[in-house]
Amino acid sequence: MDYGRDINVIRYDGNLKKVQETKGYYDPLQYPVLFPFGTHGWDINTTNCNGRRVSCRAYYSYMLQIRPNDQSMLLNAGQLLQQYVVDNYVKIESGRLRWIKEHQSDIRSELYQGLHDALHVGETNAENIGKRTILPSSFIGSRRDMTQRYEDGMAIVLNGAKPDIFLTMTCNPSWSEITSELLPFQTPQDRPDLITRIFSSKFEKLKDDVINKGVLGKVKSYMYVTEFQKRGLPHVHMLLVLESNDKLRDPKDYDSMVRAEIPKLECEPQLHEAVVRHMIHGPCGIINRKFPCMKDGHCKKRYPKQFLDETRQGTDSYPEYRRRFDESVSLGKDRSVDNRWVVPNNDVESNLTNMLLKDLNELLNLHGKKIDDYDLPSLPPNTIDRGAVPSIIQEELAIDIPNEDIESIAKLNNDQMIAFNTIMNVIVQKHSGVFFGDGPGGTCKTFLYRTLMASLRSRGEIVLATASSGIAATLLPGGRTAHSRFKIPIDIQPSSICGIEKQKDLENLIRVAAAIIWDEAPMTNKNCLEALDRSLQDICSNNAPFDGKVLIMGGGGISSSSSCCKKRY
């Protein structure tokens, strides 16, 4: 039988039993806290009151519904709710893939495209064309789906006109509709179900205003994409093509839609507060030469702009917005700003197509990928900042350091202090070393890891915090699973290597990292550790274990992984 996922349960006799996610007892086994009485979850035979089978998606939508006077255990589960939602969405997607696989035994992928090319070169035997597994365009996220969406967008532009407006709508977790529905002690991040529902409702209202009511002009055609930020909040990028009578043609049209000035406090207090808080560039220049926009002593965004009494057409065909000389606004005791530092409310200075590609590329970068990895147009060279610090490194440097972790050095016991000083001395002296913290649960291994990370990050060093499981990774600030961070193959073999490519951002991140922490290392296959060892030696041309990096592994109990590490390193 084909098991979609490797889920094991230890039987009373000590043997392992594989459990399918399509069985009703999967949920109570995987989430005993949420289902303490062993309540069965969805399985393929689940039916409703009319005897009709219930789909996996319908069942979990039912489970996540908000009901009056119902104290749902799920909706009070915090981060466990997030894991439950992700886990069961994967179950839904797995079911779709399983259905596709079971209903295409006689279908060839080249029947979708390329068959005429094969016939043209003389191939007449269908058995020699294509491959058996087809992921159709109806499967969201598949290559055919992405290609079809891209081609639809390009067809709109080619048959209509270039987009006139690039509109972005972001989710605000402080919306009253969200905060009023939160349960006690909850944050918006604890309720992804609530956020997505409210955002979807507001976006439908925005579409009605823009598309049907024409608040920005009569819309000829439009397209949009919904994305999710790293912290889980959705946002939408929308391209609008206006009818010829409503296109932006002169400075007055620009001024009617785009503003680059600080609103008067007495006239527009709410807008004034929003612009001052969110739409002020910098500080950069002489005030702060280390600001990300600074290059060769100058601001790449050309701030501060010059004062202008009226909007005019720039030399590069882009408008230069009106920025009248006015009194400065104080942002604190050390800084005041004027209209020269205001970021326009709607960014129409850049080429809209390039902006869309840049946004897509930045989103992909969050997952360690680039736009070149997909069937999408490449970024034009003039939109790529070659000298910029890779975003993957910026994210590591921007990880928040909890105050309690910084102050925890004084709370270390004698054994922990010896381990802390030993590891820190090796790192400070730029030596290599592999350390293994072996101890049962409750011996404060995670406390030691967090103290090490806080101490190193407070010095500006980068520490890669990983763990073998997602739950363990959440206990480490900035933590990720080892498979995700190092691109370890899922189907690991004794000769496997990680998917770390040379001259890529991930390789640069590993090069500058001062240390690597791998919690719960005994839980992983020893081939994973050996694959990482081979990969680091290869990309850095260093025969020392793990490229001479300081590697700190830990976990309770002895396994083949821990035994291998102790013997070899």
TrEMBL record:
<dbReference type="GO" id="GO:0016787">
    <property type="term" value="F:hydrolase activity"/>
</dbReference>
<dbReference type="GO" id="GO:0000723">
    <property type="term" value="P:telomere maintenance"/>
</dbReference>
<dbReference type="InterPro" id="IPR027417">
    <property type="entry name" value="P-loop_NTPase"/>
</dbReference>
<dbReference type="GO" id="GO:0005524">
    <property type="term" value="F:ATP binding"/>
</dbReference>
<dbReference type="Pfam" id="PF05970">
    <property type="entry name" value="PIF1"/>
</dbReference>
<keyword id="KW-0067">ATP-binding</keyword>
<protein>
    <recommendedName>
        <fullName>ATP-dependent DNA helicase</fullName>
        <ecNumber>5.6.2.3</ecNumber>
    </recommendedName>
</protein>
<dbReference type="GO" id="GO:0006281">
    <property type="term" value="P:DNA repair"/>
</dbReference>
<keyword id="KW-0347">Helicase</keyword>
<keyword id="KW-0547">Nucleotide-binding</keyword>
<comment type="similarity">
    <text>Belongs to the helicase family.</text>
</comment>
<dbReference type="Pfam" id="PF14214">
    <property type="entry name" value="Helitron_like_N"/>
</dbReference>
<keyword id="KW-0378">Hydrolase</keyword>
<dbReference type="GO" id="GO:0043139">
    <property type="term" value="F:5'-3' DNA helicase activity"/>
</dbReference>
<keyword id="KW-0233">DNA recombination</keyword>
<feature type="domain" description="Helitron helicase-like">
    <location>
        <begin position="59"/>
        <end position="240"/>
    </location>
</feature>
<keyword id="KW-0234">DNA repair</keyword>
<feature type="domain" description="DNA helicase Pif1-like DEAD-box helicase">
    <location>
        <begin position="411"/>
        <end position="555"/>
    </location>
</feature>
<dbReference type="InterPro" id="IPR025476">
    <property type="entry name" value="Helitron_helicase-like"/>
</dbReference>
<keyword id="KW-0227">DNA damage</keyword>
<dbReference type="GO" id="GO:0006310">
    <property type="term" value="P:DNA recombination"/>
</dbReference>
<dbReference type="InterPro" id="IPR010285">
    <property type="entry name" value="DNA_helicase_pif1-like_DEAD"/>
</dbReference>
